[in-house]
Structure formats: C-alpha cells, structure tokens
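Quick one: structure for this chain?
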Amino acid sequence: MRVGIDLGGTKIEAVALAPGGQEIARRRVATPRDYAASLDAIAGLVWELDRVADEAGTVGVGIPGTVVPHTGLVKNANSVWLNGRPLGHDLEERLNRPVRLMNDANCFALSEAADGAAAGAHVVFGVILGTGVGGGIVVDGRCLLGANLIAGEWGHNPLPWLGSDEWPGPPCYCGKRGCVEAWLSGPAFERDHAEHTGLTLSSREIVRAAAGGDPGAAATLGRYHDRLGRTLASLINVLDPDVVVLGGGMSNIAGLPEAASALLLRYLFAAGAGSDPVATRVVRAAHGDSSGVRGAARLWPASA
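Got it. Here's what it folds into:
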C-alpha cells in the first residue's frame, strides 16, 4: 500500500492506493497553521489509513514548496510555517519509516502522467491555475526537478508578447512585475475584470456572466484565454511537451483547454498558415483535485 499526503494551505488530504493504483481509502482534515500541529495531523492521517488497510504503507507528501537536498529544510512554501523546517526528518521520526517529499505541482504532474489525462506520454507539463500558478514536468514517468529545484515554475516568468495596455504588468508577490501568476491566477482574473468593468466579482461569477452574454465578462474571459495561449506557446517553444495538463480551480472553466489550444496557432514558433498542426495536446486533469494526493502516493513504486 502507498499513502499519499497533500499538504495544502487549508486542508491536508490523505489517500491509500493499492499496488495497482486503486483507491483503498481517503481522509481529509483542516490544515493547522502551526508546524508541530501539522506534523501531528499528517501522522494521524497516516496511522488512520494504516489501520484501515491493516498494513503500514509507504508515505509520500506533496508540499507547497521544495526541500533543499543538502540541508533537508523546506523553502519557498507559501504555508510559511513550513519554511526552514526539516519536515521530512521530523515526519520520519514520528512515523518510524522513510518519507518522500515533493513539490505539490510535481505530484500533480506525476499523477496525470501515470494514469491520468497524459498517461503514456513521454514529456508532460502539469499546470496549476489556482490561487497561484505553478507547474511540474514529468519525463518518462519521472519528475524533472532541475539544478535549482525550480523546474516547471512557469508562473514567475513574464507574460510574453505584452500589449501596450499590459505594460509593465501588475506587481507579483515575488517582487517583480508582469509575472504569469499575476495575470493567470484566480485573483488576477478577478482583478483584471474589476479594472476593466469596475465590478468586483468572483471568478465563478465572471464565468457565469460571460456564459449569459455579458459583454464585459466575455471580454475578461477572452483576455484570459489569449494570455494563457501566449504563455503556453512560449512554454512549448522551450519544452515541446507531448501533453499539457491543466489543473487548479481555474482549469474548471468550461472550454478552457480548447480555447488555449486554438490560440497556440497564433503564437507558436513555425505555427500558422501552411504549417503543421500543433502536436501538443492541452487537456484538463483526469483526476481533478485528487491528482496531487495521488501523485504523492506515487513517489514510491508500487513494489516498495
């Protein structure tokens, strides 16, 4: 049995998978905003799944950051109480077994590459479009981490091919301006609508209004489609993946993968009239919100 933990900012989700990938059990608790309490919550979930399955499973944890190999300390986590902490070491002591940690976007990509929307693909880019914008790269079933442990962090590249009305771009929490995250996250979508219409609406309300024929909302959605198409084209120009999988709350916008795919022809290198069709597929995640926790479980092989 493999246990996966998705350590989110508001919830901690756990799943137990059988060797063939079938789900045995799932549990969820609220995330404590405290390091020691988070350790307790994770350990409690693992022990509960051990009890249900009547065996001690391997444990993989998806975290909103990364672990520095030579120190074992977490960095870049937006759940700031994790930063600078030896999370893996502390969990291993509590659980009395090895624990593998991985960035949550990488876990998402790994899940979709294993048995999701990109199953069987050679190179997969998993995209998170939610409160933030992240991503992970999987090549032949293995996560690509990179020399600086930031492979896939496309959210902190600048939005490409800025229009005159987009320069210099909104400020990003990272300290720069015009980052993809500052344009394509859920809060950025809402901000863009408010700036153009004067109306403060949630992402769902904007999408619903666009479907109902509201011209302001339709224009906001059109700008979002175009910015996503531009950014994915820039990504494909560098990585050229077989599949791009969209996840996160914004990926639930009806028709988003199709709209982004159609716009690739406008921006991709060598695409356009008379060129070959774009081979990269843009698809929505097959496992939805469950992909991250399933990918965390898959940090261990089924035979471990």
